[in-house]
Amino acid sequence: MQRRRFLDEAARFMAVGLVATGVAIALYNWLAYEPYHLWSPLHRHLTWSYIVAHFVGMLVSYELSRRWTFRNRSANKAGEGFVSYAVINIITMTTIPLGCLWFSRHVLDLTSQLSDNLSGNVVGLLLSQAARFYLFRRFVFHRPIRYYEVYDDPADEADEQVDPATISG
């Protein structure tokens, strides 16, 4: 059962990554290049377009991860764990693909455009996706939801608690 849940989470995580990447790419192209002659606030500002698009993609990824991928492991409150999520996302999306690119270039001495793309954008992104899945499960969405948290109202628990001073012996 746990293996099945793990594989389900992994498949949902990959789907979320695909959706968030699609959102980031579409938004980047709209912001940077203004396709179809639509108004764009960052027309030709490529760096800012990239930053804004990928930040929005990260927000989409976080919400879908929280609500769908790790729905059985969600944090207590909306937004809880977002800073950890963002830090892990930023570190793994930069260091791992760049490390793969560096290894390909300087250790394997591969210098073609194809090898750069395969090492950084294929191998690097797949490894960073695997690292993020592990790190998100371990540090951001680490706590499985308990049965009583879904069906019981926390306010009811506070009402039911007995004050020790009122118990007579």
Write a structural description:
This protein is mostly helical. The protein has 2 domains: about 70 residues; about 70 residues, no CATH class. Helices cover about 70% and strands about 0% of the residues. It has 6 helices and no strands. α3 runs antiparallel to α4. The longest helix is centred in the first third of the chain and has 32 residues. This is Putative flippase GtrA (Transmembrane translocase of bactoprenol-linked glucose). It is a multi-pass membrane protein. Keywords: Membrane, Transmembrane, Transmembrane helix.
Spell out the blueprint of helices and strands.
Layout: H1 2-33, H2 46-69, H3 82-107, H4 113-140, H5 147-151, H6 154-160
Helix pairs in contact: 1-2, 3-4
| Beta-strand segment tally | 0
Number of helices: 6
What structural class do you assign from the helix and strand content? mainly alpha
Fraction of residues in helices?
A: over 70%
- Beginning-to-end CA distance, first to last residue: 47 Å
Q: Low-confidence stretches at least 5 residues in length (pLDDT < 50)?
A: none
Shape: globular
Task: Report the order of strands and helices.
Answer: HHHHHH
Overall average residue pLDDT = 80
Largest sheet composition: none
C-alpha Rg (nearest Å):
22 Å
Notable features of this structure?
169 residues, 2 domains, 72% helix, membrane, transmembrane helix, Putative flippase GtrA (Transmembrane translocase of bactoprenol-linked glucose), GtrA_DPMS_TM
Task: Describe, in short, the structure shown.
With 169 residues, this protein is mainly alpha-helical. The protein is 72% helix and 0% strand. The longest helix is centred in the first third of the chain and has 32 residues.
